[in-house]
Amino acid sequence: KFDPDGSTAGGFPEYAWQGNLPNDTSGNAADFTFSCWVKTPWAGNDGKFHTVFDSRASTGANGGYIYKTGTSEGDNQFFFAMPGFEPLRAQMVQGQWTANTPHHLVAVADRLGDTQATLSLYLDGALLKTQTFAGTAKPHTTFRLGSGYYGSDSLDAVLAELTIFNYALSP
Questions:
Q1: pLDDT tens-digit profile of 39-83?
Q2: CA distances from 9 to 28, 78, 158 (A)
Q3: Which pLDDT tens digit goes with each residue over 112-156?
Q4: What's the order of all strands across the beta sheet hosting 32-39?
Q5: How would DSSP label each residue in the chain?
Q6: Closest CA to 159 of 142, 146, 143, 144
Q7: 108 confidence band (pLDDT: 50, 70, 90)
Q8: Which of 18, 31, 73, 133 has its CA 20 to 30 A from that of 87?
């Protein structure tokens, strides 16, 4: 369990880990692949938001993220976004995300120039959804693992084998 100072007792502290996701030479978000194993004490339809990662500015603008939605946005969905593009909304089948079971989560962002990006989200080796969006590439800001840009919606989970590639992996 991610608990660097022993103070979280089952969840991530505010802004648990910070770093940077890849930007291109013009400073905008570049292709990337985010991959990790996630084991949670909650099932997919628990009614709460859970942020896996977030690279939005403190205003909530222009960033990438993955989070599991709460009831206000339709429970049992994952949202995945790349800076400057609409988020991919991937609905899980009821019972697809089970508590206390390791799940492999992979998100792939593939920019197609400065005005299009294809976003794909995989769960346990199966494609949940892929879609190409029009937009304007923007830069990643600070990358937060396990917390939203404003310090809430923390991820109560165990993460393993977290890897971020600076290119879009193909299936």
A1: 988 887 777 888 888 877 666 566 778 888 876 666 678 888 888
A2: 36, 25, 12
A3: 888 999 999 999 999 999 999 998 888 777 777 887 776 667 788
A4: 126-134, 116-123, 103-111, 32-39, 158-165
A5: ---TTS-SSSSPPTT-EEE---B-TTSSBPPEEEEEEEE-SS-TTSSS-EEEEE---TTS-S--EEEE--GGG-SSEEEEE-TTBPPEEEEPPTTSS-TTS-EEEEEEEEE-TTSEEEEEEEETTEEEEEEEEEB-------EEESS-TTS-S---SEEEEEEEESSPPP-
A6: 146
A7: very high
A8: 18
134: closest CA among 156, 150, 112? Answer: 112
Q: Given the structure tokens 């019972």, which residue do they identify?
A: 95
pLDDT at 13 over 50: no
